[in-house]
Amino acid sequence: MTKTKKKIKMTKEDREYFKQGMKTANPIEFLMITDFLNEAEELFTAEDLKFMHSCAGKRAERLLKNVVENLSFEDKPDTTGGEFL
Asked: What domain range is 17 assigned to?
């Protein structure tokens, strides 16, 4: 007999908080978050995992772009007036 655990469903506020946190995560924080996501697959709904992995992927792209363009992981201020993610 297997017990199915209730999965965590993120609220709109949870999603916004996670998204904003990922936008500013430094490389160490990014690695810690992605490690957590890999271990927490059974805790979250598939939809929420997809969202979190998407946010992490966007941050990974931005960190790599920073290295290529600026030789640094640091985010440069956005001078175009728009968001980078």
From this structure: 12-70
